[in-house]
Amino acid sequence: MHRFRFPKSERIKSKKIFERTLLFGKKIYSKSQKLKCSFVIEDLNPETPDKNYIQVAFAVSRKSGKAVWRNKFKRILRELYRLNKHSLLDLLKAHSRKLYFIISSHKLNEKTTPKLKLRELENDMLEIFEMIKKEIEKG
């Protein structure tokens, strides 16, 4: 019932975590170069049990386009994450790891893609999720 929620506890709200993920995290790109992802995988601390296995943020540069376009882009990314996060969550629980990641546009902007559609970005998001899964399994 609550599998497809996106609660505030799954969002990166700490500036410290956001900067650490962006600066020191591993960077991957989708094959079409539309999306970029910076991520950090950590082992869970058994002394302080945390229910949040994933924390995510979505970032779009002002240079990408006007506010309406940027907001729609972030809305689509949030929706894609919400619908597909369960596969990552199950894997993280099995390996008792924690994931922080930031997804942003790379070669995608309002000039090249004036009309954004969920289906156009879905494959890119799934590719990124698959790459992250491989990293989690590697350890």
Written account of the structure:
- There is one protein chain.
- The chain is α+β, with helices and mostly antiparallel strands.
- It has one domain: Ribosomal Protein S5, domain 2 (2-Layer Sandwich).
- 43% of the residues lie in helices and 20% in strands.
- A 4-stranded mixed sheet has the order 1-2-4-3, sandwiched between helices.
- Helix 2 packs parallel to helix 3.
The neighbouring-strand order within the major sheet is 1-2-4-3
Instruction: Estimate what percentage of residues fall within beta strands.
Output: 15-25%
**Fold-level CATH name:** Ribosomal Protein S5, domain 2
What about the largest sheet?
4 strands, mixed
**Sequence of secondary-structure elements:** HEEEHEH
* Low-confidence residue ranges: none
C-alpha end-to-end distance: 30 Å
Number of domains: 1
Large-scale geometry: globular
Helix fraction, binned, reads 40-55%
What's the CATH architecture?
A: 2-Layer Sandwich
CATH class: Alpha Beta
State mean pLDDT (0 to 100 scale). Answer: 92
Radius of gyration: 15 Å
Tally of alpha and pi helices: 3
- Structural class of the helices, strands and pairings? alpha+beta
Total strand segments: 4
